[in-house]
Amino acid sequence: MCIFLSGKENCITFAAMLSKAKIKDIKALEHKKFRDDSGLFVAEGNKVVDDMIHSFECEWLIANASWMATQGDIPAKELLLAEKGDIKKISFLKTPQDVFAIFKKPDYQIEEVNPENQLVLALDGIQDPGNMGTIVRIADWFGIQHIVCSMDTTDVFSPKTVQATMGALAHVHVYYVDLENFLEKNRNCTTYGAFLEGENIYAKTLTDNGIIVMGNEGNGIRPEIAKRIGEKLFIPPYPDTTETTESLNVAAATAIICSEFRRKNLIPHATF
C-alpha cells in the first residue's frame, strides 16, 4: 500500500507503508554482523536524523504521516510511513521518537588521516557504547575530525552508540585498523597517551598536532600500544593529597585532555 502526502510548498511526497519484512530487516541491524553484511546502520530521533541526513546516504526514512507532511524534499531513497505502534516495534529507545532513518555506512580511507598536521584521537579497546558515543561528541566539539580505533573497539555504528553521538558522527570520521601498525607508520609524529604514571598534563607542553591514545575502561592502554607512545600524560586529582577514586571515566578523561590541548594552543603563553 502506498499513499501521497502533501508537503510544504505544495510539493508531493510518495511514501510506502512500513512492512513486516522491513521491520525484520531493521531490527537485525542491532547486530554488528548484519550491519557489516548490509553496510547499513540506524539513527533515531528528529535531531540525530536531521544532523546526519545530509552527511550520509539515506536508504530508508521512516516516520509518521504528520511529520512527513511538514517536510520539504526528503533526501532518502525510500520513504516509509509508520504508525506509532510500528515505530515502537523498530525502535531501540525506551521512548521512541517520530523519525527513524537507515543510513549507508561511509567508506572512509585511513589515508585521509595525517597526524603530522592535525590532532587525531586513537582508541585502544573502548567497550562501552555510551563512552564511545560521548568521545565522538567530544572530538566534534574540540574540532578533532578523525578517530582511529583498534579492531576490538566497540562499533560506532551500533544503535546505542549512534544515539550517544547525538549527530556528531556526521562531522567525525571513525576508522577501525590495526592500531599498533598505525602508530608504527606514524612513529615520527608526537604520540600522547593517558597513564596513571604519566606527567602532569597541566605542566606539560602540548603540540597542536599528533595522536592522543585513550585506553580501555578497565585495563587502560595495552603494553604493545604503550611502547609506541612517547609522551605519557596524567590528569592529577585536586588537591593531590586527597584520597579519590582510582581513575576517571575514559570519556571524562578524553574531554579534559582534548580541552587542555586546545586551551594551550589557543592561548600558547597561558600559565593558569
Can you give me a brief rundown of this structure?
The chain is α/β, with parallel strands linked by helices and 272 residues long. The protein contains ten helices and twelve strands.
Spell out the blueprint of helices and strands.
Layout: E1 2-6, E2 12-17, H1 20-28, H2 32-38, E3 40-44, H3 46-52, E4 58-63, H4 65-69, E5 76-81, H5 84-90, E6 99-104, E7 119-124, H6 129-141, E8 146-150, H7 159-165, E9 173-177, H8 179-185, E10 191-200, E11 210-215, H9 223-226, E12 231-234, H10 250-266
Parallel strand pairs: 2-5, 4-5, 7-8, 7-11, 8-9, 10-11, 10-12
Antiparallel strand pairs: 1-2, 3-6, 4-6
Helix pairs in contact: 6-7, 6-10
Structural write-up:
It is a single chain. By secondary structure, this protein is of the alpha/beta class. The chain has ten helices and twelve strands. Strand 1 (2-6) and strand 2 (12-17) form a beta hairpin.
**Helical content class:** 25-40%
The stretches of 5 or more residues where confidence is low (pLDDT under 50) are: 1-13, 268-272
> What is the strand arrangement across the widest sheet?
1-2-5-4-6-3
Number of helices: 10
Judged by helices, strands and strand pairing, the structural class is alpha/beta
Q: Major sheet: size, sense and barrel closure?
A: 6 strands, mixed
Mean pLDDT: 89
* Beta-strand percent range: 25-35%
Radius of gyration: 21 Å
Distance between the termini: 65 Å
| Overall body shape | elongated
Helix and strand pattern: EEHHEHEHEHEEHEHEHEEHEH
Query: Could you give the count of β-strands?
Result: 12
